[in-house]
Design brief:
This protein is α/β, with parallel strands linked by helices. Helix content is about 50%, strand content about 15%. Helix 8 packs across helix 9. The longest helix is centred in the middle third of the chain and has 24 residues. It starts with a helix and ends with a helix. Bound molecules: farnesyl diphosphate. The site of farnesyl diphosphate has 20 residues, from helix 2, helix 3, strand 2 and helix 4.
């Protein structure tokens, strides 16, 4: 099948609108090469770049990446501080490219625990890309699904306390508007690398109906082929089409 005919047969609207990724296995990837864990995190940044670029070119609406969980503070102090430095460097280096490609960046999570310089970089990157209309890239940092629900509940409780909504009339929608991903489609496809089959407190509300895709690959090995295979798996599960990662790739050629 030519890429053109594939494009005609597979409607881009079948793509998952929102893909969430738990990027796991950087440490084991580095260990397998006899290197320090940070070497794996740095290689993970290249995988982030490939994933963002592929998702944007395909026309995926939202990509949410789990960069740092609330639980990650328990890691050795040195790794945490090196990871923070890496975030600052990556933000500074990549934001122009993201902006040029129409990506809208948002950092979700409790960022108040980060250094002032990191918080400033985040605010500047979000402001620069705020009006972009391409891929929405959510980077989850110091994020936890339970934290997300709790911070929304607190805002809702305050509304009830002020008498704005009677408690007995509350709906899911009233809570949803206060969640980190408010206004965005729910997660259709959640991907986790490195063979672990857990969702680890990620997008607990938003992934209520998500298809869960687990791959043995370590995160630094995740590339365009890996993402297109995951998407083909999603389309086949949803629509029983029998399409392949190669066909999704062909779609990329057409979309370019
Ligand atoms: C999980 O691997 C990875 C992390 C906790 C950090 C992820 C960070 C990046 C990929 C780099 C920066 C990303 C952005 C968006 C700027 P792990 O350390 O848990 O690996 P292991 O399970 O093998 O130990």
């Amino acid at each position: 099948m030519s890429s053109q005919s594939f494009h005609q047969e597979i409607d881009p609207s079948l793509l998952p609108k929102h893909i969430a990724v738990i990027m796991d296995g950087n440490g084991r990837w580095a260990k397998a090469r006899g290197k320090a864990r940070m070497f794996g995190h740095k290689a993970g940044v290249d995988a982030v770049r490939k994933t963002v670029s592929t998702a944007n070119r395909l026309g995926v609406q939202v990509l949410t990446l789990f960069a740092f969980s609330s639980e990650n503070w328990r890691r050795p102090e040195e790794e945490v501080s090196l990871l923070m430095e890496l975030f600052v460097t990556v933000l500074g280096r990549e934001v122009k490219r993201l902006h040029k490609n129409g990506v809208k960046l948002k950092v979700i999570g409790d960022t108040t625990r980060f250094s002032q310089s990191l918080q400033d970089k985040i605010a500047a990157a979000e402001a620069l890309t705020a009006n972009n209309t391409g891929l929405v890239l959510n980077v989850a940092a110091n994020y936890g699904g339970q934290w997300d629900i709790m911070q929304a509940v607190k805002k809702l409780a305050a509304q009830v306390e002020r008498g704005e909504i009677p408690a007995e009339q509350l709906t899911e929608g009233d809570l949803q508007v206060h969640l980190s991903c408010s206004g965005l489609p729910d997660v259709d496809l959640m991907i986790r690398t490195s063979g672990e089959c857990r969702i680890s407190n990620f997008m607990l509300w938003q992934a209520a109906y998500a298809e869960l895709y687990f791959t043995e690959q370590f995160w630094p090995d995740f590339d365009e082929t890996s993402l297109t295979e995951a998407i083909a798996w999603f389309i086949n599960r949803e629509r029983r089409f029998g399409c392949t990662g190669e066909q999704i790739k062909a779609m990329l050629q057409v979309e370019k």
